[in-house]
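lol ok so funny story. i was supposed to be doing the assay writeup but got distracted and ended up predicting the structure for this chain instead. priorities right. anyway since i did it might as well share w the group, maybe its usefull for someone
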Amino acid sequence: MDVLIHIFVALHIIGIAALLGGFLTQMKAMGAGEARIVPGMVHGAATMLVTGLVLVGLNQADDNEVNNTKIAVKLVLLLVLSVLAYLNRDEEKVSTSVFATIGALTTANIFIATLW
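and the output, tada:
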């Protein structure tokens, strides 16, 4: 079971890397008001959502303690940023506030995962 959990942790990290990487590549465009949601951001958010839910299930099945409050907070942040990314994925330009919110929620999710 530990190997399976580690595989899904790796996939979860790949998802966050895709989401954060997509955001960071658009930072210069955000400054010019021309940022857009790149496909990797949407796919990264979806990967994080699926692998995160699988990780919770695997950890509970393996009788590992799961902090449900932490998971709930991370899930809410991820759902909000996923919806923002999905709804704006076809826009030529995304407003700076929406794009910055996606970046802030992504960063908050990382800090919650590592510091809480």
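The chain has five helices and no strands. The CA atoms of residues 56 and 116 lie 16 Å apart.
back to the writeup now i swear
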